[in-house]
Write a structure and sequence with these properties.
With 198 residues, the protein is mainly alpha-helical. 76% of the residues lie in helices and 0% in strands. Helix 1 packs antiparallel against helix 3 and helix 2 packs antiparallel against helix 3.
Length: 198
Amino acid sequence: MEVLLKLSRAIDAVNFRIGKLLSWLILIVVIISATNATVRKVFDTSSNAWLELQWVIFGAIFLLCSPWTLLSNEHIRIDIINSTLPKRWRDGIDVFGHAFFLLPLTIVMIVTSVPFFLRSFRLNEQSMNAGGLPQWPAKSLVLIGFVLLFWQGISELIKRIAVMRGLIPDPHATGDGAHSAAEAEAERILAVAKTDAE
């Protein structure tokens, strides 16, 4: 198990660094978007390449930072239900979800995105818009993003099994009775719903 935990730590380190680095693209895409809007309004002109670039950067942020989101335990889940369950059940749900939903989905996406990307790359596929960008770099993001997400899913599965076996502390546990922001919000909603019902 120690070898698997070392693999998990290596995967976490890579996805953490990629996520941190690419999070700066949010600022870049905001600047590009604001500049495009200003140029379009002030000079009554626009560039398809710059418009498409902001879409590609947004896609890169979404696809390549999703493993970092999973690593940080900030992915979407039904916290209202999840937070009321015993920890052992939550751990079991995580293992089941990763093994039977997340990993199979990433495998399907990787297998289907390889020909999707390769066909575009071989053709040097270009945008259908005049002055647009090549399409294959954007299509490669699907493949890269799901490969990274697959490996992060493996890492999360290893860690969750290790936590259940008592080999490592829960990396998502918050000390001193504190809760994550999502759990705190879920508890607040439950309290409001209980008050409204009375």
